[in-house]
Amino acid sequence: MAIMYPQRILGVHVNTFYVSTPGLTFRIKMLLGAFLPAGVVVAKEDQNKLYPLSNLFSMVLMETGYMHLQATKPDTIGAALNQNPVSLAAYILEKFSIWTHRDNRHKPDGGLLHGDFPISLDNLLDNICIYWFTNSITTSVRFYSEGFNKKTYGKLDTIPVRVPAGLASFPQEILNLPKNFIAHKFYNIVTYNEQPAGGHFAAMERPALLAVDLHKFVTTLEKTT
Fold first, then answer.
1. Backbone angles phi, psi at 203, to 5 degrees
2. 189: pLDDT confidence band, cut at 50, 70 and 90?
3. Which of 63, 74, 159, 207 has the most C-beta neighbours closer than 10 Å?
4. What is the pLDDT of residues 114-171, one digit of tens each?
5. H or E stretch including 167?
């Protein structure tokens, strides 16, 4: 909406943000940051978000298998998941496990049964039941195949977001870009706040933190417009 109808959008607040189609300047900056001392290209406190690049590329390879499958064969994986609720639960819960904290990958139960896991089992099962009882996992994953195409990634995704933006950066987000990198996509960043905890599912994990950040963004936006 912020890209397609900027004249109708007062501002946009997000907690998952990245640059899907980086330009030449972005790529050069990323490479320079890998060789220059911390603090030159990226602030010292943000250095671990991108570097070393080997860790970043390893993470991308490890955690994007689902994306390639859903973008190329959504009906195949959808048909398989619709046959068994246990299969569906395993597929979905694996993402909740690792995307709330990367260290959960090394735990026997994925951290899901630990008392400090930020999302209750009831809420996790509610999420699974929505897909199971509505028989909608196939149409859900098909969203990826509809989005990963030349029209979207070749045109729409290259358009910058020019409306005022509020960015909430959660430490366990899958890909967490520093402010000076994400500025290649969001041209008018009003607030960019580092959060003390939380990952990809911030609204379920840390709703209070997300709500406070949203309120800060709206307050700041009202003062500047």
1. -65, -30
2. very high
3. 74
4. 989 999 999 999 999 999 999 999 999 999 988 877 766 667 778 899 999 999 999 9
5. strand 165-169
Rounded to two decimals, the pTM is 0.90
Rounded distance, CA 68 to CA 61, Å? 10
Spatial contact of 185 and 19, defined as CB atoms under 8 Å apart = yes
Using DSSP's 3-state secondary structure scheme, residue 17 falls into coil
Question: For residues 196 and 183, what is the distance between their CA atoms, to the nearest angstrom?
Answer: 22
Contact call for residues 170 and 15 (beta carbons, < 8 A): yes
* 81 CB-contact burial (10 Å; exposed 0-12 / middle 13-18 / buried 19+): buried
Phi, psi of 67 (to 5 degrees): -65, -45
**pLDDT at position 93 over 70:** yes
Cα–chain-centroid distance for residue 190?
A: 19
- Exposure string for 46-72, b = 16+ CB within 10 A, e = fewer: bbebbbeeeeeeeeeeebeeeeeebbe
* Contact (Cβ atoms closer than 8 angstroms) between residue 111 and residue 101: yes
- Give yes or no for a contact between 201 and 98, defined as CB atoms under 8 angstroms apart: no
Smallest CA-to-CA distance from 185 within 161, 153, 166 is with 161
Residues 56-88 have pLDDT tens digits of 888 888 888 999 999 999 999 999 999 999 999
- Structure token digits, residue 179: 């402010």
Tokens standing for 22? 């980086």
